[in-house]
Amino acid sequence: MSIFHLTRRAVMAAAVATVALTGAAVAHDYKAGTLQIDHPWSRATPGGASVAAGYLVVKNTGAAPDRLISATVPFAGRVEIHEMAMKDGVMVMRPIPDGLTIPAGGSVELKPGGYHIMFMDLKSPLKEGTSVDGTLTFEKAGSVPVKFTVEGLGASGSAHPGH
Question: What residue intervals traverse the membrane (predicted)?
C-alpha cells in the first residue's frame, strides 16, 4: 500500500473520530426556548443506595428569568430540587419547593455541595458509563427530556466544559 493510501486512511479515521466525539458532545447539551442545559450527569451509586443526585448547568440567554420547577426520572420513586447551605456552621441539605430561578442573561450550576436534583427511592443502582433518562420542567420553557451521564463514584464534573 502506498503512503498516499495510508495517509488517506489516517485522515479518514481522524475525521470519523472527530465527528463521533463532536456528536457526543452536542448530544449532551439541550435547548428549550432561551435556556441551554449543559451536561446533565450523576454519580454511580453502590448497590443498596437509595439516593443519588443530578447535576447540570442551565444558561438563560433570554431577557426574562425562568424557573426549574420540577424533574422526573423513571429510576427513582421521588425527585426534588435541593440546595446545600451552611446553617449555624453546619452544612445542611434542604428542598427548594418553589423551584430554582434561572436569571435573565445568567446561569445556574447544579453541582456537588450546592444546588442539585435529588433522586430518592432508587429502583436500581446507577452504573458508571451508562446514561439515564430524565425530564426537567421549567415554568416558561416547559418540559425538556434529557439524559444524565452516570460518571464514577468520586466524579466532580470538573472535567466537563462549563464546570
Answer: none
